[in-house]
Amino acid sequence: MASILIIEDEKAVRSSMVSSLQLEGHRASGAACLKDAWELIRSKDFDAVVTDVNLVGESGMDLVKRLREEGWDGAILVITAFGSVDTAVDAMKSGADDYLQKPLSLDALSVHLARALENRRTKSRLNVYERLESVRTSASENMMVGESPAWQRALETARRFAAMPIPRGGEPAELPAVLLLGETGVGKGVVAQYVHRSDPGFDPRHPAPFVHVNCAALPASLIEAELFGHEQGAFTDAKAARSGLFEIAEGGTIFLDEIGEMPLEMQAKLLLVVERGTFRRIGGSRERTARARILAATNVDLESLARVGRFRRDLLYRLNALTVSIPALRQRPGDALLIARRMLDRLSRQQGKPGLTLDASAEAAINAHPWPGNVRELINALKRATMMCEPPNVTSEDLGLVPAVSVPMAALDSQRDDRLRPTESVNGIPLLNGRLPSIDQMESMLITQALRQAHGNVSLAAKLIGLNRGALRYRIERLGLTAKVEEASL
Question: What is the pLDDT of residues 185-214, one digit of tens each?
Answer without folding.
Answer: 999 999 999 999 999 888 888 888 999 999
